[in-house]
């Protein structure tokens, strides 16, 4: 589950200028004109410390703490289905805690960590605002000694019992505001790369796929229709990914430009 907008991150606070800028963006105008862009600041690990984060708001859970300069998982519970009895729930309280979280390079401007020492279920996550987005290459973990299969992929964030009905309107309003920023930043990114067909094609394809990807990730999150919490967090992450591309340029997947060129050649040949 790769967050759309994957590029190599630029250091926080630095300004880069791929291409020839025509106008410098003023404060509050990100995406409204071409020009140098300050890399958006990624959410800090401090936003997840001391909290119980739950997958989809009511599933597997994790607690993260600092130990000096290191980050650790001090509690981890995986919830899934029994290997021998399909459809029957199982729960595994992971032993051998704490587990060290190893920093990894993020492709979307976010802080990324991996729990590599958990042999039965190693996974990677990006730090969002008070939540984490876990990826596991689409594979469920099989913990045979516990007769359990668990898939950690998805958003681990606010537990279902912590949602405050009084804040539902505020949260939905925040999402609408962030959606507006996404549209603005996408338009700026498109305009900047309008003459580079492979990059333009990739940017459009990526943006088009974001909504369906977000829907897939968030459809199981507790009380999502009332609060839109999961969608808000992923949309905030999308803003950071677009900001990274505006600041540092778009990094195409290996072979993408060649594929676009081949498709264009084939299309021209078909018209003859």
How would you describe what is shown here?
With 272 residues, this protein is α+β, with helices and mostly antiparallel strands. It folds into two domains: 49-161; 163-271, no CATH class. It is 32% helix and 24% strand. The protein is built from five helices and 13 strands. The strands form two sheets. An eight-stranded antiparallel barrel has the order 3-4-5-7-8-9-10-13. A hairpin with a 4-residue loop joins strand 11 and strand 12. The model is unreliable at 5-35 (pLDDT under 50).
- How many domains? The number is 2
- What kind of sheet is the major sheet? 8 strands, antiparallel, barrel
Gyration radius, rounded: 20 Å
- Arithmetic mean pLDDT: 85
Helix/sheet category: alpha+beta
Question: Could you give the order of the helices and strands?
Answer: EEEEEEEEEEEEEHHHHH
Assign an overall shape.
Answer: globular
Concise overview:
This protein is of the alpha+beta class and 272 residues long. It contains five helices and 13 strands. Helices cover 32% and strands 24% of the residues.
What keyword list fits this structure?
single chain; 272 residues; alpha+beta; 2 domains; two-stranded antiparallel sheet; 5 helices; 32% helix
Q: Any chance you could write out the topology, listing elements then pairs?
A:
Layout lengths: L14 E2 L20 E2 L13 E4 L5 E7 L2 E13 L6 E5 L5 E6 L7 E4 L7 E6 L2 E5 L5 E3 L4 E3 L3 E4 L10 H25 L4 H22 L5 H4 L1 H20 L7 H16 L1
Antiparallel strand pairs: 1-2, 3-4, 3-13, 4-5, 5-6, 5-7, 5-12, 7-8, 8-9, 9-10, 10-13, 11-12
Helix pairs in contact: 1-4, 2-4, 2-5
